[in-house]
């Protein structure tokens, strides 16, 4: 028993919020820890554990705790609010049980790296005298906005047309995350994002999935108030620095990607000709928006791959499914393989933080079509700060019309503005790679984190 303990630097429990966009980056970060001699146990909820397509990550163990909905998770709850209340009550108990059982089996944890969405995990860690690190899966920009709300430095409902938040460019009210500009629309999520900061002062570290240059102003500002370490971009190594030898899996998928058909379809398309369309793992489009997008894609005359999850399929116009010749509609795809394929021309995205970072790291030009949450702010940064894409602007009914979609695709795929965007993309891609490469700041920050863990766990 003693012998096994000495064979690793520390044992970390890594607990993501149970959603694709949270598990992916925390898993990739875990692999970097393992590479540096840390033992990692990935902790997920039972329902998620049952559906994960891959539980055999090299050197990472997977354990489950209950969120109160072992069959179905959030989908089985009456509402997000009910789910949240139950998870926030049951989660601390079942995490406590796990900490106990690991200790009893001679495998005690030293540190809990918890998704900042789940602040109660830090309380559990502290109750047992363990170290605690908050992990922010969304951008520092968005989190600084939420922190200002938590501190009541930003009053709601919004009453100004412009906002000046430290470290961020001037933002119009409409550029703030949807939970603020549509205040009251999602009380459960609002609670989650704002209460991330309730006990953060007790955290030993704050880890953020970003890189300094991308969010320099806000990172510099947050460094003054938090023990912050920027450890991103958390992509599978094989798509970025290629330093994790033998790391073959590129993540967890909560859906089954039709990888072979997808790549085969791309293989015979001309270079940089295909528009990839995806709105991530959670968000849904209205029927009207789905129809406008469908005809916008068709009218553009471009090849496209469109990820339409099963729950969204019924919204597709019937004649479109029958007549589309240039498109491939899939329930889920291997996004990173698509983004790196030479046939890819651009990515029409909902601007989820993972999709945004993936596109940044791979130098893919974007058409930003944000739907809700942090996506609104990410879209603003994509267009105006990083200049790696164009925003598809919605009309007064909040619908992006087919003409706009067609125009954005043309703008990106054709020369002119498209070229400028592509050149900016190459600049960001190189910065991201340098950040993660040996000696880059991400690499150094992870090394410092592990050294501090080792120091405090001896
Ligand atoms: C959610 C929120 O929507 C997002 O705004 C927030 O920043 C994180 O949580 P999600 O909607 O799933 O995430 O979007 P995103 O953050 O982009 O993550 C989606 C992940 O699924 C990406 O890693 C992407 O590569 C992957 N994916 C998506 C696939 O592997 N295949 C697909 O077909 C679609």
TrEMBL record:
EC number: 2.4.1.-
Domain of life: Eukaryota
Keywords, comma-separated and alphabetical: Glycosyltransferase, Transferase
Any GO BP: monocarboxylic acid metabolic process
GO MF entry, a single one: quercetin 7-O-glucosyltransferase activity
InterPro entries, per the entry: UDP_glucos_trans (IPR002213), UDP_glycos_trans_CS (IPR035595)
UniProt cross-references to Pfam families, sorted A to Z: UDPGT (PF00201)
Family classification: Belongs to the UDP-glycosyltransferase family.
Protein name (Swiss-Prot/TrEMBL): Glycosyltransferase
Species per Swiss-Prot/TrEMBL record: Clitoria ternatea (Butterfly pea)
């Amino acid at each position: 028993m003693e012998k096994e303990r000495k064979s690793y630097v520390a044992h970390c429990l890594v607990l993501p919020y149970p959603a694709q966009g949270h598990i992916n980056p925390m898993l990739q970060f875990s692999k970097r820890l393992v590479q540096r001699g840390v033992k990692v146990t990935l902790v997920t909820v039972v329902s998620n554990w049952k559906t994960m397509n891959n539980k055999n990550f090299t050197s990472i163990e997977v354990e489950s705790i209950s969120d109160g909905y072992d069959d179905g998770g959030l989908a089985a709850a009456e509402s997000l609010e009910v789910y949240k209340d139950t998870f926030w009550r049951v989660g601390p108990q079942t995490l406590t049980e796990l900490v106990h059982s690991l200790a009893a089996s001679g495998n005690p944890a030293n540190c809990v790296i918890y998704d900042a969405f789940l602040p109660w995990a830090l309380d559990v860690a502290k109750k047992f005298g363990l170290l605690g690190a908050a992990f922010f899966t969304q951008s520092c920009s968005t989190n600084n906005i939420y922190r200002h709300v938590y501190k009541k430095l930003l009053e709601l409902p919004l009453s100004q047309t412009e906002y000046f938040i430290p470290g961020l460019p001037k933002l119009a009210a409409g550029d703030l995350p949807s939970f603020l500009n549509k205040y009251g629309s999602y009380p459960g999520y609002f609670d989650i994002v704002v209460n991330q900061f309730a006990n953060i002062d007790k955290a030993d570290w704050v880890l953020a999935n970003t890189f300094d240059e991308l969010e320099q102003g806000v990172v510099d500002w947050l460094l003054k108030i938090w023990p912050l370490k920027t450890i991103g971009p958390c992509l599978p190594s094989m798509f970025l620095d290629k330093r994790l030898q033998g790391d073959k899996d590129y993540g967890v998928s909560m859906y089954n990607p039709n990888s072979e058909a997808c790549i085969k379809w791309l293989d015979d398309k001309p270079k940089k000709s295909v528009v990839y369309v995806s709105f991530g793992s959670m968000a849904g489009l209205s029927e009207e928006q789905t129809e406008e997008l469908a005809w916008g894609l068709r009218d553009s005359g471009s090849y496209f791959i469109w990820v339409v999850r099963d729950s969204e399929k019924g919204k597709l116009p019937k004649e479109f499914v029958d007549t589309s010749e240039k498109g491939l509609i899939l329930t889920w795809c291997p996004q990173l393989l698509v983004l790196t394929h030479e046939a890819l021309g651009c990515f029409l995205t909902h601007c989820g933080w993972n999709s945004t970072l993936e596109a940044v790291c791979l130098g893919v030009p974007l058409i930003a079509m944000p739907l809700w949450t942090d996506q609104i702010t990410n879209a603003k940064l994509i267009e105006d700060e990083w200049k790696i894409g164009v925003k598809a602007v919605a009309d007064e009914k909040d619908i992006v019309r087919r003409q706009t979609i067609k125009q954005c695709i043309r703008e990106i795929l054709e020369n002119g503005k498209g070229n400028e965007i592509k050149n900016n993309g190459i600049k960001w891609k190189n910065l991201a790679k340098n950040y993660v490469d040996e000696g880059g700041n991400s690499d150094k920050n992870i090394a410092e984190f592990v050294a501090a863990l080792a120091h405090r766990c001896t």
